[in-house]
Structures are given as C-alpha cells and as structure tokens.
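User: Can you fold this complex?
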Amino acid sequence: MKGAILLLPPVAFGVFLALACLLLLWGRVMAPGRRPTPEKVEPYACGEALSWGPLQLGYSQFFAVAVLFTVLHVAVLVVATMPGGPAALFAVAYLVVMLFAAAALLGELKTI
Amino acid sequence: MFERLKRWARVKSPWIVHFNSGACNACDIEVLAALTPRFDVERFGLLLRGSPRHGDVLVCTGPVTRQVKKRLQRIYEQMPEPRFVVAVGSCACSGGCFRGCYNVEGGVDAVVPVAAYVPGCPARPDAIIDGVVKLLGKLKALKAG
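Assistant: Here's the predicted assembly.
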C-alpha cells in the first residue's frame, strides 16, 4: 500500500519529532531575547523572598518510582504495537535507548 | 512581515496579572467586573493569569505601601519583557488620599514604570477598558523585539 511506510512507528516517531523540533524552533525565534536576572530565576512566591530552611521536602524517591512506572508502561505499549519483520529492530532499539535514558535519569536522581 | 506578526500576536493576547499594592479593594472589584461578561474586557484578548511569569501587563491597584514596595518590585522583575504596568484608581496613579502618609511610598510610578494611568475612586470598568485600549494602542506602536 502506498504511504504505508509513514504508518510505521519509527517513521511516524521521526516525523513527529521533526515537527516538535520545528515548533520549538519557531517559538524560540518568536520569543523575545532571554535576559536572565536573579528575580527571574528565583521561585515565584507572591513577591516574597523565599528563605530556604534546613528542612526541604523532596520527591526524589517518588520520581524513581514514577520513572520506572512510566518506563514499564511505555515499554509494554511499544512491545504490544511492535511491527513484525525487520522493522521490529527499530522498536527494540527504541526500548534499549529508553532503558539507558531511564538508567541515566535514576543515576542523576541519586545525586539530588 | 515577521515583526508585524510578532506585534499582532502581542497586541491580540496581552495577559494580565492583578496586584493589590495597598488598595481598599474597591478598584480590585472594578477590575474583576471589567473581566466579567457584562463588560467583557476579554474581547480584546486579555486573560487574567495567576503568575507574573505568564503576564505581559501588571494591573496595579492602590497606593504602594512601604511594606509592599519590595514585593511589587520583585513581581515586576519576574515578568518577562516586554512588560507594562497599568495603574488603576486614583491611589495607584498618585497615592490619592494616602499620599504623604508615613507608611505610603506614593503612586505605582514611584516604584515601577507605568505605561497607562486609569484615574477614578474607584475606577469604573468603562475607564479600565479605555485605559486598556489606550495601552493596546501603545503596544501597536511599539517596535517588536
């Protein structure tokens, strides 16, 4: 079928990735130049100057669970919609990249 | 053409942030009334936002008290450029009847630059709409950057 190649998940992923990059680029061109100041970088607290106390709530443990939960769900989705034949290699490559990304993210979280 | 597109986008969707710098709440009620369907200032593309990070226009009511001065400056600095301030009400324009009080800095322009003044005690929604339209006129003339 003509055009069926566009329906392949890796091709569709590439197309949408390119589209997202174009939108991002368009936004960067449209936006005024970035002029960072200390006030712009600090968190918004209704105009108050935030004083950081010794006790800070952290979500790093929750993030680790959330990352694994997301990775497992996306992996299941990828495996469930995996095309047959040689195209399956793309899905496998995607899974491998995803696992590396998750491992890197979890390693980064440990340092927080 | 690109500059015109940017200016058009800016004029058609100026998002506002409302800040009470020491008002008696009368002007705040009128600002909110201007946003309701009865006066419908949203027809000019205005949207009330809760964070200065999303705002283009800071709508300020009341005189600036010494206690709130630094908060107002910080919120103004946290807005992205280009940013504009509209002083709503006599107190915001000049300090009003509180001008010269020991705890009052003065009008909004004593602390941050003001682009449009809307006098009145309290300023009527019609006057606020007029001020907004005049500000949009200024935005049209502004060079997109």
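Chain A has one domain: 7-111. Residues 7-111 of chain A form one domain.
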